[in-house]
Protein 1
Amino acid sequence: MKATDVIADGFGRIREVVYEAVDGVPAELLGRIREVVYEAVDGVPAELLNARVDPAANSITWLVWHLTRIQDDHIAAAAGLEQAWQADGWADRFDLPLPAASTGYGHSARQAGTVRVDSGDLLLGYFDAVHERTLAFVRGLAAADLDRVVDERWDPPVTLGVRLVSVLADDLQHAGQAAFVRGVLERGADA
């Protein structure tokens, strides 16, 4: 068997999982992401949420804000809705010195450092609002919906199924990073 066949088989298996996802898997994964986000943010003082382990590193605040902004942006576009960021006033509540459409994608270290909060409640409030919108959207999907093209800027064009996998992967990665940063910062604070 050629290596390309093995890789193609792997992606085929991912596609199978995505198709099975309509039966509750995305909702289950989204629930797990929520648990990790809460473990990273809940009860953490703003000083640690906004802290960076070095000047070029991302803070817990930036990581959770970014994963939420990407989810909000991508799911709203796929659902044909306005993002919660603008529609529900989250951009005003965060009052960041960034363009309103900013999601964190491509941020420099300086830009990432401007994403700060006074409390984890703001981060978790926005995350929960987007989480609920995402669950409502995902629970309304049928298997056939996953083949719908949602972004033609890529070659090949991105289907809804691929976009959902992308959002889940991004969320898992950044939520795990936020939990790791919390652990590093708390150990440093205890030293």
Protein 2
Amino acid sequence: MEKLEKLGDDAPTRRGQERRAEIVRCALEVIAERGYRGATLSAVAERAGLTQQGLLHYFPTKDALLIAVLAERDQWDTGAARRDGGGAWPLELLASLVEYNAMRPGIVQTFSALLGESVTEDHPARDWFTRRYDRVRADMADTLRRECGDRLAGGLTPESAAPLLVAVLDGLQFQWLHDPDAVDMPALFRTFVSLLRQGDDEETA
């Protein structure tokens, strides 16, 4: 009986989590279509089959929903790319992530649209992206040092190459969204990684 009661107690929590996940999915779709500023809570609520008041029960503000969307998107990527609980992202798994992103244009479009909008001073995601870039640059430097050593092509250090690696990842996404037939994201990313690795080859030679 105690076990059944515990299961019964967990059921509302599970339903709430499932409903929150559905709202986040709908918010991703609406933001991809309209951008953050054009995505209203009423539009997200309608997509999720809720009243606006019902949506506010799960996310009291639009900013709270936005952060949940970004966190969910980031979790998909980190869950796919991290090898373990540490900060390093193996380059081969990063390349696989780029291939995966090429199969989900809606998610890439949402992230890229929010990233572009977030450069304005009053955007609610500005701090989130700033913190994320700090963390990602540190992770990339760690990865480059583990896999390529302290010296990369052109005499770059892992710390100086890390922002370039991040720029290539995000920049390729923007170009690919504009013209996917002309920009092969996975192939171009692998080419860039091979250029970074040339420092290893030069040392070996």
Protein 3
Amino acid sequence: MRILVSGFEPFGGHHINPTEYLLEAVEDHSFADIQVELRTLLLPVHYDECVELLIREAEDFQPDAIIMCGLAAGRTAVSLERIAVNVKHVEPGAEYADNLNARPQDVPIREDGPDGIFSTLPIREMTCRLLENGIPAAVSNTAGTFICNNTMYGVLDYLQQRHPGVRAGFVHFPASTQMALHKPTLPSLPMDLMTRALMLIIRTTAEKLQHDAQELDSAASL
């Protein structure tokens, strides 16, 4: 089975985005007991282009699942996003825009698109597994209205229309300890802990895909 994992470049004045390092940590990883082919993709923090590039990579790789990762500085746990909403929005007083200085306000991601689209990753199983392994985690009900939500919505919308059998969703990671060195009050997690979290998320996704395949095989034999 094939799993595509994406992350982002730094943005918003940060010199680090932990998801970039997470991609480097998992790109050559193999699981002894599960056959998974991984591909990683680092995305720009640009509205819409992030979606276009990830869709292009998915068309080339033909994954069975897409795990999108992003930074949510200020959160205290790994957040498994439940839903993406059809809006691009940066508050007028926000400290930063995207990396091309775009500041959309109340703009639909797709005109006449659904208001929201749910993740198709096994987010509850992922959350429980992370907690069982001593990693702070929670299901989140908002991916915001910035680039992460833009990416999640755009990819899920595309998959619903073109490849409904492909599972996909978004995971927000807190700031890394290295980022907190420059801002001691910033909640953070160590990179090794977040790397373990992503490994477990990939494993849980792979196991879900195996289960899906077994159910299809059972149904076909009836």
